From TrEMBL:
Coiled-coil regions listed in the entry: none
Name used for this protein in its record: L-Fucosyltransferase
PANTHER family xref list: GALACTOSIDE 2-L-FUCOSYLTRANSFERASE, L-FUCOSYLTRANSFERASE
Native organism: Amphibalanus amphitrite (Striped barnacle)
Stored Pfam families: Glyco_transf_11
Length: 257
């Protein structure tokens, strides 16, 4: 999703045609309806110059060169002006939308909450702990942050119901036990992310921890977003990009009581 959004925005900014790699198109087609960027034919043989988003936008190369954006681009300030277009393109398939709506209705019924405000909570852990320690000498946001984020959202929204999705649901069940109107609802299967992402996107507001999965859940849901800061020696590139794009997120210290 980040690659698609960055590609679309870069092509528009540079006034160049954009093509989806067939692998990207196949992956996105599993979850979303029609995407409006054409797919590069498999039979097409092109000499590509692999380039980063930053280099591409800085150099603004001539139109005679074919470029492939490399790495893991997530240029929020670049693609945020296209938000309306991205929301149209990232419309979940009907079956995923229906499943998410049904699941939210079930959770509200089980919690005996009438007309709730759904707050999606994405908790990223497992292998991200290693990446965060290596990249910014940081630690993943823990129980203290999540409890404070939930309390903040409860103070803003009455009748709220918190829907937790995580790659480590057992950790969430153990550590978030006792919090009222907080339910762990996702299946936590990383190679089958569509249902969890659609569920979070169907919520009204979002609490995130780390990573682009949580970002896209919050971005598609709209509403208010609470996110951690101060989890490492320096912020991640994602946090810096979100701040530069001025998305209006509430930043809550990852460490604290």
């Amino acid at each position: 999703m980040s690659e698609y959004a960055t590609l679309l925005a870069a092509a528009g900014e540079l006034r160049r045609p954009a093509w989806l790699h067939p692998d990207m198109a196949r992956t996105l087609a599993v979850y979303f309806g029609r995407l409006w960027v054409p797919v590069l034919p498999i039979s097409c043989r092109v000499n590509w110059t692999i380039i980063s988003t930053e280099e591409l936008m800085a150099k603004r190369p001539d139109s005679d060169t074919n470029h492939m954006i490399g790495g893991f681009p997530h240029a929020v300030p670049l693609f945020h002006p296209l938000r309306a277009r991205l929301l149209r393109d990232f419309t979940f398939r009907k079956e995923l939308r229906q499943r998410a709506d049904l699941r939210l209705a079930e959770l509200a019924y089980q919690a005996a909450v009438t007309a709730p405000t759904f707050i999606g909570v994405h908790v990223r852990r497992t292998d991200y702990s290693t990446w965060l320690a290596r990249s910014v000498r940081g630690r993943v946001a823990g129980v203290s942050y999540l409890r404070r984020a939930v309390a903040l959202m409860k103070s803003r929204h009455r009748n709220s119901l918190f829907v937790v999705v995580s790659d480590d649901p057992e950790w969430c069940r153990k550590n978030l036990r006792g919090l009222q109107r907080v339910v762990v609802a996702g299946d936590g299967v990383q190679n089958r992310p569509g249902a969890d992402l659609a569920l979070l996107a169907a919520c009204n507001h979002t609490v995130v921890t780390h990573g682009t999965f949580g970002f896209w859940a919050a971005y598609l849901a709209g509403g208010e977003v609470v996110a951690p800061t101060g989890y490492g020696r320096r912020p991640t590139g994602l946090e810096q990009d979100v701040r530069r794009a001025r998305l209006g997120w509430t930043w809550l210290p990852a460490k604290g009581q």
